[in-house]
Amino acid sequence: MGSLVGEGKFCEADVGNIVSMGEKETKHDSLNENQSKPVSDDLPHNQQLQDLLEIGKNKDGIQIPPVAVAVRNIDTMIPPHSQLPKPEAPPGKNPMNSQSPPSPEKFSGIDMPAFGKFFQERSNSLSSAIAKKLSSLSEDRVTEFNLSGLKVIVQHKKDDQEVEIEHGNLNSKIRGRITFFSRSNCRDCTAVRSFLRERGLRFVEINVDVYPPKERELIERTGSSSVPQIFFNEKLLGGLVALNSLRNSGEFDRRLVEMVGRKCPDAAPAPPVYGFDDPEVERTDEMASVIRVLRQRLPIQDRLMRLKIVKNCFSGFETVGVMVQHLHCSRNKAVEIGKQLARKHFIHHVFGENDFEDGNHFYRFLEHEPLINKCFNFGGSINDNEPKPAAVVGQRLTKIMSAILESYASEDRCHIDYDAIGNSEEFRRYVNLTQDLHRVDVAELSSNEKQAFFLNLYNAMVIHAMIRVGRPNGGIDRRSLYAEFQYLVGGYAYSLTTIKNGILRGNRRPPYTLVKQFGATDKRLEVALLKVNPLIHFGLCNGTRSSPTVRFFTPHGIEAELRTAAREFFRRGGIEVELDKRTVSLTRMFKWFDVDFGQDKEILKWVIPYLDSTKAGLLTHLLSDGGPVNIVYQNHDWSVNS
Asked: Which spans does this entry mark as compositional bias, Basic and acidic residues (predicted)?
């Protein structure tokens, strides 16, 4: 419908105007040449008019009347559709239906290239004009609009609520509540959590591993303890299968819209109450009554022994005397009770030389040990309840810490929101639960259980340290953090360095030191692993960007889980192979702990099973051709993984 200059097609009105302008310009040629104004810099004024008048000649150059031009060049005049917009005149041109003919003075100032631009842009602006026109139509159900040689499809405008759901803007209007029950390390629960986050929907997650009494409510509402279970207010939506079905059918959005105007009733699952601990049945230790008597009756004094002051101690003779007097037992029986107190870590010899003996031997209560008050899981008193099995306590701590990561860490665990963790109810419960570690018997753990227990404890302690102590600044702060942040575990203080080098590395020297972690008489040496597994280095996260990502392990799957951790670490850039330079770039961890991995080519052979096929092939080729291989160590990024 738009006229194109390049094709020589004009509407009848356009032809008339052009011929009329040509006639007037012919008369204008008689004017003095100095008085005429050129239209463009490239062509003289008369030449431009001559080009315009060329459209009035046939192929033989014979002048054709204006009417003939109109008849020959225009086949059919198609009026524009009533719904289409009216075209606008180009800049500098009066409207086409103007009654006054253009004067020579006005015509000489017209921007001639604007004619071509006008006709070219008319077709380009047509589609947008149609869209604007049709969007204002009052007929809501129009789906097609047919024009001559043109078909327009109209898409219905989305409902406001549909748009809000799509863009996550419905959140602020929902008066109801989305609740779902979960457990730690549950794949289906992770899928539900990710879906709700992607939709930008607020929800309340009730992790029954963090809030054990909520499991009874879960069973009462659903008839099963399986998770996840999703609730819209008080109505049960179902698990992951039900969620996928409702999402694919569009029913999920419809039910979501229903919650906009409906306030959450009291019958809906209640969110956990923050700041209150769940009542638990605790068994009081059988020695608790004895230790209470001793704490009240024994004369606790500072004494000079071996040329130094030993604080807050008492003698074995005094202890036996108090028990004979208040427990009405013999001295031999009192000695047996004293040994039981020592084995249960209520008291310790001041130099760790014996369990308990009558006479001039000196002991201290556990809470009076020099390092105990610096432990971050010690709140001023010892947990006197019957110690739970170490494996049970470790598993419970791991579940809570896993729930913390699922809520406050990125999906890949590379970034952790320490501030949010520190303010969370989950972390408060974790810290309270660490008091169960005071007197646990870690010596009863098997090798795999011990490995998983201390790997998990190390990773949890690092998170705790980042929250309570803060991010270290520089090497001195880091060494201080790893050496001084401690937990009271099984009657003894364990720092991060102690766990890593003393327990998991079998009492090997830390990097750049000359002495081992434990001395020959250190009681913690009994807990150290007899065989060092180099894979433990890929399971320990020290809170930096270059360290392995934080994860937690199970005793029955510890080996497979550590291999997975190693593969992930190398996939993230722990090793790079440059075949043309015959160079292998390794994480600096291999240099620090070369005694665990081996030297040079031994290290390269060790890592091959944990590499992807490409890197493994390149490294195998370098090692098999007999040529030299250069090993360089990457710089360690000490910035915090927050």
From this structure: 22-31
Query: What's the whole-model pTM score?
Result: 0.74
Percent helix, percent strand, percent coil in the chain, to nearest 5: 45, 10, 40
Q: What is the CATH code for 160-258?
A: 3.40.30.10
| Cβ contact 210:429 at 8 Å | yes
Taking Cα atoms as reference points, which of 335, 338, 315, 334 lies closest to residue 323? 334
If you compute the radius of gyration of the chain from its CA atoms, what whole number of angstroms results?
A: 43
Q: Report residue 278's pLDDT band, with 50, 70 and 90 as the boundaries.
A: confident
Query: Are residues 525 and 415 in contact, defined by beta-carbon separation less than 8 angstroms?
Result: no
Domains of the chain by residue range: 5-124, 160-258, 288-370, 390-560, 572-633
CA distances from 327 to 317, 341, 363, 365 (A): 15, 14, 20, 19
Q: For residues 232 and 607, what is the distance between their CA atoms, to the nearest angstrom? A: 50
Q: How far apart are CA 456 and CA 497, in angstroms?
A: 14
Residue where the block lists tokens 């108090």? 322
467-520 per-position pLDDT tens digit: 999 999 988 999 999 999 999 999 999 999 999 999 999 999 999 898 999 999
Q: What is the dihedral of CA 373, 375, 378, 383, to 10 degrees?
A: -100
pLDDT at 146: 57
Angle at 116 between CA 107 and CA 108, to 5 degrees: 15
Residue 202 neighbours by CB distance under 10 Å = 11
372: three-class secondary structure by DSSP: helix
Query: Among 9-18, 358-367, 450-459, which is the least confidently predicted range?
Result: 9-18
- CA-based nearest residue to 182, from 229, 138, 224, 214: 229
User: Is a pLDDT exceeding 60 seen at residue 32?
Assistant: no
Give me the architecture of the 288-370 domain, per CATH.
Answer: Orthogonal Bundle (1.10)
